[in-house]
From TrEMBL:
InterPro entries assigned to the protein according to its UniProt record, in alphabetical order: Gfo/Idh/MocA-like_OxRdtase_N, Gfo/Idh/MocA_oxidrdct_glycsds, GFO_IDH_MocA-like_dom, NAD(P)-bd_dom_sf
Bias (Low complexity) ranges: 11-21
Keyword line: Oxidoreductase
Entry keyword annotation includes Oxidoreductase: yes
Lineage, broadest ranks: Bacteria, Bacillati, Actinomycetota, Actinomycetes, Kitasatosporales
Gene3D superfamilies: Dihydrodipicolinate Reductase, domain 2, NAD(P)-binding Rossmann-like Domain
Protein name per UniProt: Gfo/Idh/MocA family oxidoreductase
Keyword Transmembrane: no
Residue ranges of domain Gfo/Idh/MocA-like oxidoreductase N-terminal in the record: 25-143
GFO/IDH/MocA-like oxidoreductase domain span: 163-307
């Protein structure tokens, strides 16, 4: 039960004497958007949840010395390193948290596992299936030595999506017929937005597909409780040339230089898919949905009812119970802020709501618990590999004009 947040009260005691719990020393590589989000998770988790270990923000790592020192100060890390190999070589680091672009995930994760560390790796697990396979098999071997590895699909850890998983598992939807998922953003609409790393295949692996599609593939499979069997896909790059960045990037923003370069990833990916159970699924991932900022929406329709979730209203879950009398049935809004909802017994009173950042706190909570208990955390590197296979099948299908492409699970 370490991963769905549904167990007994786990609020941190009012006074937690420092030093009474064994420490878990975390070293994080990367300090941009995801680094800031993960820092928030590590900094907060032990203050909110009653954990068997005490996460310590031991070291943060990045290549630019001035910037990484500033990040250490800002986010509360005790020390800063400029070489991830030096971080991994440190005896006082128990867990390596990888928040870099995808092109370095495999190298850092493999080295960290070889050095005896636990690993948390941002999504998508890697840039290629081959890298993800190497990571999953190294994680499997390392698990025999008691080391654990998890991939950061944080949207499983929104209380409402965790509740949705619980409701599907309880059979409240019956056999699933449709899973409908979209992840819509619009930060690339401006053709003058610069060619940052997320737009380069060699760094990011793919575009909207790997960045957003990976999230919705993981979430859809997690909620449905089974992996996809095959896909038919279309991808498109709407703006093929963009100005080069004229300085450092920050989050999803950057300044431009005068010369231009080629965009080598997709701007949007659309695909339909089959689940082995017979349910059909549709997916849309784009950075061009004007007005949609971080609109991850999922709807599941089953023979007994439906669930719908929208990340932009993340404290709510819509539920239709088809077994209710027809004249009164309809979608109703569950306000997911009750103490018996996943993760919420440690937070605020009902109605007070959580946000995006809390998913990273919950991710840290579940990983710390798994490490203390010696249970395998989910999503595992094997789960990350399976998502990578779906992404590869999407690219293969899109390259063949949508030919249905089975996924080897
Ligand atoms: C950018 O599209 C991004 O930050 C993704 O990289 C994250 O994974 C997603 O959670 C929010 O959007």
């Amino acid at each position: 039960k370490a991963s769905d947040g549904a167990e007994a009260p786990d609020r941190a005691p009012a006074a937690t004497a420092k030093g009474t719990k064994p420490p878990l020393h975390v070293g994080m590589v990367g300090y941009a958007f995801m680094g800031a989000a993960h820092s928030q998770g590590w900094r907060t988790v032990g203050r909110v949840f009653d954990l068997p270990l005490r996460p310590v923000l031991a070291a943060i790592c990045g290549r630019d010395e001035t910037a990484v020192r500033a990040a250490a100060d800002r986010h509360g890390w005790a020390t800063a390193e400029t070489d991830w190999r030096a971080l991994i070589a440190r005896d006082d680091i128990d867990l390596v948290d990888i928040c870099t672009p995808g092109d370095s995930h495999a190298e850092i994760a493999l080295a960290a596992l070889a050095a005896g560390k636990h690993v948390l790796c941002e999504k998508p697990l890697a840039n290629t299936v081959a890298e993800a396979e190497a990571m999953a098999s190294a994680a499997e071997v390392a698990s025999g030595r008691g080391q654990l590895a998890m991939v950061g699909f944080n949207y499983r850890r929104v209380p409402a999506t965790a509740l949705a998983r619980r409701m599907v598992a309880e059979g409240r939807l019956g056999a699933l017929r449709h899973v409908r998922v979209t992840y819509l953003q619009d930060w690339l609409v401006d053709p003058d937005f610069p060619l940052t790393w997320r737009l380069r295949r060699e760094q990011a692996g793919s575009g909207a597909l790997g960045d957003l599609g990976a999230h919705i593939v993981d979430l859809a499979q997690h909620l449905a409780g089974e992996p996809l069997a095959g896909v038919s896909a279309l991808t498109e790059t709407f703006v093929r040339h963009r100005p080069l960045p004229g300085g450092p990037t920050s989050g999803l923003s950057a300044v431009t230089a005068d010369n231009a370069g080629q965009v080598t990833v997709d701007d949007a990916a659309l695909f339909t898919a089959r689940f082995p159970s017979g349910a059909l699924a549709s997916f849309e991932a784009t950075r061009y949905a004007t007005g949609r900022k971080n609109a991850l929406r999922i709807e599941l329709n089953g023979e007994r009812g439906s669930l719908a979730f929208d990340l932009e209203r993340l404290n709510e879950l819509s539920y239709h119970d088809r077994t209710e009398p027809g004249s009164y049935a309809g979608f109703r809004r569950i306000l997911v802020t009750e103490p018996d909802h996943p993760y919420l017994d440690a937070w605020w009173p009902p109605g007070h709501g959580l946000g995006y950042e809390h998913t990273f706190v919950h991710q840290a909570r579940d990983l710390v618990r798994a490490i203390a208990e010696g249970t395998r955390p989910v999503p595992s590197f094997a789960d990350g590999l399976q998502v990578q296979r779906v992404l590869a099948a999407v690219e293969e299908s899109a390259g063949k004009n949508s030919v249905y492409t089975p996924i080897a699970n």
